[in-house]
Design goal:
With 442 residues, the protein is of the alpha/beta class. Helices cover 46% and strands 16% of the residues. The strands form 2 sheets. A 6-stranded mixed β-sheet has the order 3-4-5-2-1-6. Helix 6 runs antiparallel to helix 7 and helix 13 packs antiparallel against helix 14. The chain is flat and about 85 Å long. The structure holds guanosine-5'-diphosphate (GDP). Guanosine-5'-diphosphate binds next to helix 8. The site of guanosine-5'-diphosphate (GDP) has 18 residues, from helix 8.
Length: 442
């Protein structure tokens, strides 16, 4: 589908860089650019961009003829010098020549509508642009290159195979034949379900990579939590003081360790009561802790052993099975702790911090088998959950001897949900929602 209106946008967001790129896409893209730059058949040309008789800038023009372009339409990219005056004038003149200002994400939306990429790949473009760490980049790149789509396609094929067996039976409805052994069907559904379940479970990892792996540092007042946080963040965001229970502003910060983004959750609530052990039970702190993928329990090496064993026991009872607990003895410069800990550090001098960083990134590797396909998108997660639920209905249907047509309808429902991930099934609202979050020019 080639759109009749040609869209134009500045694809360097601020226009303040050394180069500003303006992108055009649509049926008249070449005609419009030819009004401003000498007409040439070259794919790549150097020329003068004119507005009437006046030369605005010397530019490089790339022409991508349909269908071999990002959007599948005729696309033109013009590189200007990055002056905001030049770029604004150029945009104005291109609009006067017939282009229309692009909506957010409209180039990628056109690429999707023209079958250049499916919906999950289009969403990965946004993730790629937003990526801040090596791990995030890797996941977005895998999805953009169609890794996730391929998995969904395989699943759909399995389900279609299943549906066709059932539907074949329906064609012979009168004769009461069963082409598919019910036990085989159940095995097939179970196989697909476990596959979908794996993808659902990968979201915990995927989301952690995207939002930052949530880490809670907890411990008694004065254990050195702020000092440790500062050291890990390499700045002075947290307030360090000798006064126990110093009130702090909410501290939540992000740092990248070994290519993985970590998000430290504020658990200042633990400080708020004077009885430390009781304080460990403060509901709010536990709630915070429950959001964490990793809990670091930090204590002062000089503290009593019995007290710590109790706290650690308590903690283990509170956190979920998937949450990793790392026990860390601090202030090893002034005391050698006899208490068993995963690590001994001195937060103040930085001793042992590299080991702690290593431990943090290792934890993440342990929690995920590093399979290439990881769900990072909430929309995909919802669709997978709905697929799983429809499959469960089908499975129960087989067990209770549900009629073939009802069974087929459950399978179609699961196919519908899977198809919504890659965009085989879409609505205007859904597209508006997805592409509206892109920036203009992408
Ligand atoms: P928080 O209450 O757990 O956040 O503890 P702070 O980070 O505010 O630290 C309490 C006190 O312990 C401060 O005076 C820190 O300078 C000190 N401190 C923190 N880490 C170390 C360490 O590794 N060695 C020594 N000697 N003192 C430390």
């Amino acid at each position: 589908m080639i759109f009749h209106d040609t869209i134009v946008a500045l694809s360097t967001p601020s226009g303040e860089g050394a180069i500003g790129v303006i992108r055009l896409s649509g049926a008249n893209a070449f005609e419009i650019i030819n009004r401003h730059v000498n007409d040439t058949n070259e794919k790549l040309s150097f020329g003068r961009f004119r507005i009437g008789e006046d030369v605005l800038d010397e530019v490089i023009v790339c022409r991508f003829a349909s269908p071999k372009s990002y959007t599948g339409e005729d696309v033109c990219e013009i590189s200007f010098h990055g002056s905001s005056y030049i770029l604004n004038r150029a945009m104005e003149s291109l609009i006067e020549s017939g282009a229309r200002l692009a909506e957010p994400g409209e180039f990628t939306q056109r690429a999707f509508l023209n079958g250049k990429m499916d919906l999950s790949q289009a969403e990965a473009v946004a993730d790629l642009i937003a990526s801040e760490s090596a791990a995030e980049h890797k996941l977005a790149m895998h999805q953009m290159r169609g890794g996730f789509s391929k998995e969904i396609k395989t699943l759909r094929e399995e389900l279609i195979h299943f549906a066709s067996l059932i539907e074949l039976e329906l064609d012979f409805g009168e004769e009461d034949v069963e082409f598919a052994q019910r036990s085989d069907l159940k095995a097939l559904i179970e196989k697909i379900q476990s596959y979908v379940q794996n993808l659902i479970e990968s979201f915990r990892f995927g989301n952690a990579i995207k939002q930052g792996v949530p880490v809670a540092i907890i411990g008694k007042p004065n254990a050195g939590k702020s000092t440790l946080l500062n050291a890990l963040l390499n700045d002075d965001k947290a307030i360090v003081s000798d006064i126990a229970g110093t009130t702090r502003d909410s501290i939540e910060d992000i740092t990248t360790i070994n290519g993985i983004k970590f998000r430290f959750i504020d658990t200042a609530g633990i400080r708020e009561t004077s009885d430390e052990i009781e304080a460990m039970g403060v509901e709010r702190s536990y709630a915070k802790m429950k959001q964490a993928a990793i809990v670091i329990y930090l204590f002062d090496s000089r503290d009593e052993q019995s007290e710590h064993l109790k706290i650690i026991e308590d903690l283990k009872g509170q956190i979920s099975a998937e949450t990793a607990l790392i026990t860390v003895a601090n202030k090893s410069d002034i005391s050698v702790s006899s208490i068993k800990a995963d690590l001994k550090i001195a937060a103040k001098s930085g001793h042992g911090l590299n080991e702690l960083r290593q431990l943090l990134s290792n934890q993440l590797k342990l929690t995920h088998t590093q399979s290439d396909t990881v769900v990072t998108n909430t929309r995909h997660l919802q669709a997978l959950k709905a697929t799983h639920a429809a499959l469960r209905k089908a499975f129960e249907g087989i067990e209770t001897g549900l009629s073939g047509d009802l069974l087929a309808s459950d399978i179609r429902e699961s196919l519908h949900h899977l198809g919504s991930i890659t965009g085989e099934i879409t609505t205007e609202d859904l597209l508006g929602n997805i592409f509206g979050k892109f920036c203009i020019g992408k």
